[in-house]
């Protein structure tokens, strides 16, 4: 091969690289314009988002109390104990003792 043929191959390879870069730029432009279009469609939604305000200390405390009251009780320490007296059927009445703890 001659030196001229080698240079032609290199020039051809460089042209292919430039063409691929141009195609990537075209694809990038299409994507960018698409994203800009989607962003312009979503722009009005910015106005309807909920307004966030800080809660007062009492309101925060009330919410924590609600969360605590909704937690399931810890039934692992439940037991039945006989009370003094009878329930009329010859059997002593039963009560359940529940530990005050809550499951996390």
Explain what the structure shows.
- The chain is mostly helical and 104 residues long.
- Helix content is 52%, strand content 8%.
- It has a domain at 3-71.
- It has helices at 3-42, 57-70; strands at 79-82, 94-97.
- The longest helix is centred in the N-terminal third of the chain and has 40 residues, at 3-42.
- It is elongated.
Name some characteristics of this structure.
elongated; 2 strands; 104 residues; mainly alpha; two-stranded antiparallel ribbon; single chain; 2 helices
Helices, by number, come to 2
Strand proportion:
5-15%
| Terminal CA distance | 79 Å
Write the H/E string, N to C: HHEE
> How is the largest sheet built, in terms of strand order?
1-2
């Amino acid at each position: 091969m001659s030196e001229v043929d080698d240079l032609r191959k290199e020039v051809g390879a460089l042209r292919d690289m430039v063409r691929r870069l141009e195609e990537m730029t075209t694809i990038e432009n299409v994507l960018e314009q698409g994203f800009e279009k989607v962003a312009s469609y979503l722009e009005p939604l910015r106005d309807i988002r909920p307004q966030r305000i800080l809660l007062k200390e009492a309101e925060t405390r009330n919410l924590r109390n609600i969360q605590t009251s909704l937690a399931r009780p810890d039934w692992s320490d439940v037991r039945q104990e006989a009370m003094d007296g009878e329930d009329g059927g010859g059997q002593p009445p039963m009560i359940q003792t529940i530990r005050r703890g809550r499951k996390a």
